[in-house]
């Protein structure tokens, strides 16, 4: 039956918003990054602390974003906040990065990972064409109906969480424990927390946790955003923190570290070691299904940023057009086109190396803006205030700043590419301003 037209547009509930946050976070990072971390860190305690610290960063960030979202309830995320707190050009640059890299590239990465995991189970499947097909099908779903897209999000995310909980419980019960200590055994374990390897690995973990702020991009479509957005951000982030720590404990506890080192498909490797080759292949299929949720959530959230930018900048006005169901179809099609380009050219992996730097930079500036906003606009209504202020934003800024310093020091080429991306965005912004004056 066709979707009925009502006087009140469909609003995203607490459950759907939480599902979007969880789906955005649980994706390729947790299933691929552990193999790189064990190359530089050999302590079980330090490896688990890595995921706890990453979760702490995300939780502190969610608390801060909750206050900003409640005080400035409009879709657009960092684009809206930075425009209001600092200057419209900074907001535009954050939106430019999110629109061109922040959603399209991770969507492509998740889709290609899905294809590769599926190919490990069904060798006849073409990973690239399966990736393209999944992106196109999910674009069609989200382009047709917000209600249908939301329901799909809740169902697929519920399956994702359920499967991971079962895997964690079964892995804990069945695995043969490895000779690895998960409690600190001396000063050496604590020292690893301050090592360069820990800081560099935290970059990968931060990418795995990226998405904790997903719901703020949909503020205008959330029911009662002042009340629900902070709850959505905290609930989604807390669930993922427990899942990540539990999942990596099972990976490390049940799999010899040399077998994990340098491996991308750590879920497949761990499942094969713990349960046998047959279950390992099944796990590959399950992870492929789970990544559908990640692709879906990014396709759902990303175009809303482009839409808000189009509302504010004449040069992009055409992208603000929405369908009769309130869906930014043109923005959706633009993001899908960028995603397909990344899949077809395989250059998205290089893009993600520098995207981590740029995206972290803008979340850093956004949380810093919490202090700026309280000073500049103390009279602003704040239905929700960040718990633990000023400690929680300071913790976020300290840990995020630490990782940014190491990216600048150890990844100078990617950092320069990121700055070049900002330069192009700045050019687009000022061209748009000139068109407005004309």
Automatic annotation (TrEMBL):
Keywords: Membrane, Transmembrane, Transmembrane helix
Signal peptide: none
Membrane topology of this protein: Multi-pass membrane protein
Coiled coil spans: none
Transport as UniProt keyword: no
Molecular function (Gene Ontology), one example: L-amino acid transmembrane transporter activity
Main localization, broad class: membrane
Membrane-traversing stretches: 12-39, 45-68, 89-114, 120-140, 152-175, 195-220, 232-252, 282-306, 327-345, 351-375, 387-409, 415-433
Pfam families: AA_permease_2
Example of a GO cellular component annotation carried by this entry: membrane
Subcellular location(s) per record: Membrane
Protein name: Amino acid permease
Organism of provenance: Hymenobacter cellulosilyticus
């Amino acid at each position: 039956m066709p979707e009925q037209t009502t006087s009140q547009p469909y609003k995203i509930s607490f459950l759907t918003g939480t599902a979007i946050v969880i789906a955005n976070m649980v994706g390729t990072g947790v299933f691929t990054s552990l193999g790189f971390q064990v190359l530089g860190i050999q302590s079980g305690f330090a490896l688990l602390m890595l995921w706890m610290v990453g979760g702490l960063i995300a939780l502190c960030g969610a608390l801060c974003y909750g206050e900003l979202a409640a005080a400035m309830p409009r879709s657009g995320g960092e684009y809206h906040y930075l425009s209001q707190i600092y200057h419209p050009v900074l907001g535009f640059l954050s939106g430019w990065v999110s629109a061109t890299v922040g959603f399209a590239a991770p969507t492509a990465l998740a889709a290609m990972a899905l294809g590769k995991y599926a190919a490990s189970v069904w060798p006849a499947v073409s990973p690239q064409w399966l990736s393209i097909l999944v992106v196109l099908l999910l674009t069609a779903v989200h382009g047709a109906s917000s209600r249908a897209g939301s329901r799909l999000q809740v169902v697929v995310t519920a399956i994702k969480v359920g499967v991971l909980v079962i895997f964690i419980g079964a892995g804990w019960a069945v695995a043969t424990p490895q000779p690895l200590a998960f409690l600190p055994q001396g000063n050496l374990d604590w020292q690893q927390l301050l090592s360069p390897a820990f800081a560099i690995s935290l970059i990968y973990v931060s990418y795995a946790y990226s998405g904790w702020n997903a719901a703020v991009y949909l503020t205008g479509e959330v029911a009662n955003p002042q009340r629900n957005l902070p709850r959505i951000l905290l609930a989604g982030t807390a669930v993922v923190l427990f899942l990540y720590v539990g999942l990596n404990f099972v990976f490390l506890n049940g799999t010899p570290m040399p077998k994990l080192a340098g491996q991308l498909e750590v879920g497949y490797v761990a499942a094969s070691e713990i349960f046998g080759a047959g279950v390992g292949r099944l796990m590959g299929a399950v992870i492929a299904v789970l990544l559908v949720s990640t692709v879906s959530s990014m396709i759902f959230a990303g175009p809303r940023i482009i839409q808000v930018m189009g509302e504010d900048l004449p040069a992009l006005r055409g992208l603000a057009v929405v369908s009769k169901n309130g869906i930014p179809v043109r923005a959706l099609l633009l993001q899908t086109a960028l995603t397909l380009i990344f899949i077809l050219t395989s250059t998205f992996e290089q893009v993600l190396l520098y995207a981590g730097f740029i995206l972290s930079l803008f979340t850093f500036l956004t949380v810093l803006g919490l202090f700026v906003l309280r000073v500049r606009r103390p009279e602003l209504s704040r239905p929700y205030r960040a718990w633990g202020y000023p400690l929680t934003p300071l913790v976020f800024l300290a840990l995020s700043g630490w990782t940014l310093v190491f990216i600048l020091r150890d990844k100078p080429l990617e950092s320069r590419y990121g700055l070049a991306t900002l330069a192009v965005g700045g050019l687009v912004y000022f061209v748009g301003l000139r068109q407005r004056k004309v």
